[in-house]
Amino acid sequence: MSKIYIDSTIYTTKPAGSRLPKEMAVYNLLEKLDIPYIRIDHDATASIEDCYDVEKLLGIAICKNLFLCNSRKTDFYLLMMPGNKKFKTKELSSQIQSSRLSFAPAVYMERYLDITPGSVSVMGLMNDTEHKVKLLIDEDILNEEYLGCHPCINTSSLKIMTKYIIDRFLPYTGHSPKYVKLTGK
């Protein structure tokens, strides 16, 4: 596994300079909702394993975010779960009464969340104004004071209080989470 470069500077404000509009929109919304965050910048992270050093710097457990769909590609889900837990399709399918769940094609991720593979994040729900994506949250996420996520791009990571995501961010986006209990077994 190759190590990614991480700027160890801890930021509490949005970046200055040239960034993608979708990333800047996240910071602007967090400011609007009065949600404080800590940010670090790094090379692109392609997997949860790439985020381990980011976790250490931020003092959090990175949240695994999976973009899923049913076999007909008519129902879409964003699943938030602990990064160290294995995802078992059958376990989730039975809880949400949806058979044959799979990873959704990137075209839907971009269409509904304005996110590309590797950057999936709860922050993408701000772009789902038609509410095409249902949010699923593993109950273990609620046990964490903070969660880590990308600001719609995988070259930065944020540390945000979980309660602010649940009590401020999600109500603003109009997404009501369904809580699931995943064992990863």
Automatic annotation (TrEMBL):
One of its GO terms (molecular function) is aminoacyl-tRNA deacylase activity. InterPro entries: ProX/PRXD1, YbaK/aa-tRNA-synt-asso_dom_sf, YbaK/aa-tRNA-synth-assoc-dom. Signal peptide: none annotated. Residues 42-164 form the YbaK/aminoacyl-tRNA synthetase-associated domain. Belongs to the PRORSD1 family. This is Prolyl-tRNA editing protein ProX. It comes from Clostridium luticellarii. The gene is proX.
